[in-house]
Amino acid sequence: MASNDLREPWRRLRSRAVGVWSQARSVVVHASHEFARDDEHLASVTNRSVTSPSAFERARFGGVALIVLGSLLLGFIAYVVTVSPVTHARDQGILSEELRFQLANSTSPVSQTDSDGELLALGTPVALLEIPSIALRTVVVEGTTSTVLQSGPGHRRDTVMPGQQGSSVIFGRQAAFGAVFSHLGSVEQGDRIRVTTGQGVASYRVVGVRVGQAELPDRPPAEGTLTLVTATGLSFFAMDVLRVDAVLVSGAYEAGARAFTYAALPDSELAMASQSESAAEIALYSLLLFGCVVIVSLARRHWGRWQAWVAVLPPLVALAFLLFREASALLPNLT
User: How many domains does the chain have?
Assistant: First the structure.
């Protein structure tokens, strides 16, 4: 009896140990099964081959690319024809306020350099040009590059300021960005031109209109001359250069110090020149636009057509606008 009493605790202990072992074994077996399933899933994901686009998908990508390229071409035409006049009007409003402030405070530039002796920055307002016979009133800026002339007529930097002793030359566009000189060919001999600068008001009289390399008209002796230059021919398809010559009939103002000559004038500031410096920006924006096209094509497969266009359209439009702005600098500066 005593022997059975001593064995009883051992039997209970062994029974508990067997139970614990059985539970631990079942947990290990269950965990091993789970790990096996995870390994099989990972292997299936890892070994899954990427399906190449079908012929239809490749054709659809090409179609999307052609649509985008065609849209860019039409968009650029629309930008030049409809948007550029708006940007020109905005720039003229800003320049008009700036010039009015400078004239009121006697700080308007009157030479090739500013108060610090540095060359005037391109795009600085320098004069107000008025031709009553063609109802023209516009602010003239410094410089004649294609980008500068997007804001208004530009004073060629190697010549004296309008109203001063010597020859002054002003370039202006015929068709794009406000087409400020589109009616310059209608100016007739004897018409008056009025220019307001920081030195005062100067009055010119037109003595001739010439096209291309025609000889200068006979001009009476004068202390100063003014030549207005633009393109001639069909809009955006310029055939030649139109020049209006005028002589100063009011008192001439003293010319400022000359710090810039014709020899130093860059090619981009000559008549009918374009601005190739924007080629790098054009290449960058074109590459980004191509990336947007690729993203649209891929996103259509996962998100759907409308969802893809909604996601990509805003950056696409912004990049297109930046591209059009840079590409417009490639247009001849008189167009």
Answer: 1
pLDDT digits (tens, 9 = 90+) for 254-307: 988 788 889 999 999 999 999 887 888 889 988 888 888 788 778 877 788 788
First-to-last alpha carbon distance for the chain, in angstroms, is 123
- Local structure of residue 223 (DSSP, 8 states): S
Closest CA to 233 of 272, 265, 203: 272
| Sign of the Cα pseudo-torsion (235, 237, 240, 241, in order) | positive
- What DSSP element (H or E) covers 332? none
Contact 98, 161 (CB under 8 A): no
Q: Which two tokens stand for residue 23?
A: 């539970």
Q: Which amino acid is at 188?
A: E
pLDDT digits (tens, 9 = 90+) for 195-242: 999 999 999 999 999 998 777 777 777 789 999 999 998 888 888 999
The phi, psi pair for 287, rounded to 5°, reads -65, -40
Label residue 55 exposed, middle or buried (CB < 10 Å: 0-12, 13-18, 19+).
exposed
The answer to whether residue 295 sits within a structural domain is: no
Contact between 156 and 144 (Cβ < 8 Å): yes
- H or E element at residue 38: helix 2-46
Q: Where are the alpha helices (DSSP H) in 218-304?
A: 279-302
Q: What is the CATH number of the domain that holds 237?
A: 2.40.260.10
Domain with 265 in it: 78-277
